[in-house]
Structure formats: C-alpha cells, structure tokens
Amino acid sequence: IRRYSAVAGKDPSIAGIEDIVAVASGKGGVGKSTTAVNLAVALAKTCQLKVGLLDADIYGPSIPTMMDLCGKPEVMSALEKLTRGVAWGSVDILVVDMPPGTGDAQLSISQRLKLSGALIVSTPQDIALIDARRGANMFRKVEVPILGLLENMSYFKCPHCSEKSYIFGHGGAQKTAEELDMKFLGEIPLELDIRSSSDEGCPIVISAPNSSAAKAYTDVAEKV
Ligand code: ADP
C-alpha cells in the first residue's frame, strides 16, 4: 500500500484521506480526465485501495457557457467546499483531476491540497511534451514528487488488421521522461472503446476489464 505522504513527510491535508495524488497535464484534451477515472478504478480494483475521485477542473467548467451564465465564482472557496467540506470517510488515495495547464491556479491547488504526488499525462506530440515539461517544473517548484509520465493516445490499433499506427509520433514521451529523470509509466493506445466507455459513464477498466486497454491502466496503477 502506498503512503506517499509518509514518504514526503507531509500530514494529510484533508481529514480521513491518506494521500492526494494529482493527474495533471500541460494542456487540455490529452486524456487527463480519462486517465484519472480509469486509474482511480484500477487502484480500487487491482490494488484493493479505498479511492476517492475529485474533479478539480473548476476553472474550465462547460455549464456556464451552455447555460449563458456570467459572473466570477469564488473558485478557491469552491475547492475548499469540494475537499474539506465533503465527508470523504476513510480514503487511501484521493485522485484529483487537475485543471489543465501550469499556471498559478494549478500551483495554488497543489499547495492547498498538499499533494503527495503527481502523474503527468501527455500525448506523443512534441508540443504536448513541451507542456508536460512545464508541468514537471511546476511540481518541482512546489516540491510535489512526480510519480511519472504517462503517454496517452500512443498509437492507433486497427480494429480490422491489428496493425499499430503511431499517429502522433513515437518514443518522444519515454525520451522526455528519461531526460527529466521521471519514471515512464507506459503507453495507452488510442482506442474507440476507451472513448465510448467514458462517454457511456462506465470506464473501460470496469466495462472491459480483460481488454488490453484496461490492462494498460492497471499496469499504471501498479507502477505508481
Ligand atoms: P482532458 O481531460 O485532458 O481534457 P479527456 O480525458 O477529456 O481529456 O479526453 C478528451 C477526449 O479524448 C475525450 O472524448 C476522451 O474520451 C478521448 N480520449 C482520451 N483518451 C483516449 C484514448 N486513449 N483513446 C480514445 N479516446 C480517448
């Protein structure tokens, strides 16, 4: 059982929660939320941990746009309510889906939640990897241990002939992880079932636990 907070010498910042682990990305759309949900389920199922899941992407909610609402919410007080205002019970790991990016908001969340670790998600594209580097620098600045870099949408596996196509390039994330002295957590393929299961509200680790994609997430859970 992981005890990052103990290793880092930090007291848990929310009563009842041992460790708070962020899933972060330098930019949006790389699969951060998809990773957060599948990792949370994999940690619960495979590692038998009591897991909480928090959507902290409170800076980019879609509802105000869809409902034509304006005004500035008090964001940090919302975070307080979502964390210390919730009866979490006893939780081993709280997985936090961070807002994308590497600005003051992310820094502030990292410090307020006293993160015990952060996992960075990137696609293989150079531009996404540059942003991933910024993410790594940000976490180092606030002394949050980086659990590793996970490459999402690594390759497309043809459902007809099973050939792998490296649509966004290949090998870049592993190289970046080595350069930045981070653990490389593996490759998650670009797969229709990952997207459709998420859209249906049943992450692939639950809907198709024996699929290779689910196994890829389980491997990540075992590595972090
Ligand atoms: P982020 O949180 O980084 O903005 P999301 O997790 O919301 O990204 O993913 C963006 C879109 O890409 C979603 O529609 C999601 O279902 C899809 N997606 C993410 N990862 C994969 C994958 N490995 N294979 C197929 N679709 C994916």
Automatic annotation (TrEMBL):
KW ATP-binding (keyword) present: yes
GO cellular component, one term: mitochondrion
Name the record gives this protein: Iron-sulfur protein NUBPL isoform X2
Family in the record: Belongs to the Mrp/NBP35 ATP-binding proteins family.
The keyword Cell inner membrane is assigned to this record: no
GO-annotated molecular function: 4 iron, 4 sulfur cluster binding; ATP binding; ATP-dependent FeS chaperone activity; metal ion binding
CDD domains according to UniProt: Mrp_NBP35
InterPro entries xref list: Mrp/NBP35_ATP-bd (IPR019591), NUBPL-like (IPR044304), P-loop_NTPase (IPR027417), YlxH/NBP35 (IPR033756)
This protein's UniProt keywords: ATP-binding, Iron, Iron-sulfur, Metal-binding, Nucleotide-binding
Gene Ontology biological process terms from the UniProt entry: iron-sulfur cluster assembly; mitochondrial respiratory chain complex I assembly
